[in-house]
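During the reporting period the student researcher (J.K.) took over the structure-prediction task from the postdoctoral fellow and processed the backlog of single-chain submissions. One of the processed entries is reproduced below for the supervisory committee.
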Amino acid sequence: MRSETVNGAVTVTVPATTANLGPGFDCLGAALTLWNQFTFALRAPTGHPVEITVSGSEAERVKTDTSNLVYQALTRFYDHLNQSPPPVQITIQLGIPLARGLGSSATAIVGGLMGANGLAGFPMTQEQILQMAIDMEGHPDNVVPALLGGCRLAATTPSTGWQICEIPWHPDVVPVVAIPNFELSTQAARQVLPTSYSRGDAVFNAAHLGLLVRGLETGNGIWLNAALQDRIHQPYRQSLIPGYAAVQAAAMDAGAYGMVISGAGPTLLALTTPEGAEAVQSAMESAWVNQGTPALVKVVQLDNQGAIAEVQG
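J.K. obtained the following structure tokens:
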């Protein structure tokens, strides 16, 4: 494995993610075909440790000082090596809306760690990067698929590590994301959750998560329709998303298997058939507009590659 400092630029492309998928709260997530891209280049010392430029939608809202999450991840990486981070230029191209439940913060963490690893000559393994990303994010459901791609289930092991299991995703299960033009912070979405749950709710979610795994693998729409139900987070977060009921009804009437909150929201994710995807997309978009909330609604696919680092020069 290389350990020399890279003199050229390192570009890291990281996919969006949708987490939870109904009953898979804080443990299940999937990578989607939307991306953020981060380019890292060493620069001459000027007294400022980092220079950050951002392009894309909402670029003006991204911090460009040392509090930027991408740079925070980079410094965490060098701290782990017991080294000072070098002066660096970071260029960010945004393709994922911020604070919408599509894992934008996970892309920043993964991008920063992988960019630092590239600049340092790739001294760390993917498994080490993954553990650092989970530690920074606090839970695995977004950073794991952002790094590895596909649909992933994460569970702790007795030795305090993680077991990551790939969940097969049938090609006839098509995701449709409806991204409204308002934000919902993860902190606010967590504050509405109860501190304890009944045994019945725990059993309900365990059963439906098992059914969801089989439904995704087989493409069985009847199973998916039942499996996307949840009692841990969605009943409490729906009130934070104006128009939720109307968009859900529209998606179901158009033929979706079901609809869930993507991550902490407010993006809503419907699963449907390849033939029905366009109708579901149109119905969800119209429902948001009828609620007075313009939204970007897209038919997407599963991203099976995950984060990719390329060295130029």
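The committee noted the following: DSSP finds ten helices and eleven strands in the chain.
J.K. will present the remaining backlog at the next meeting.
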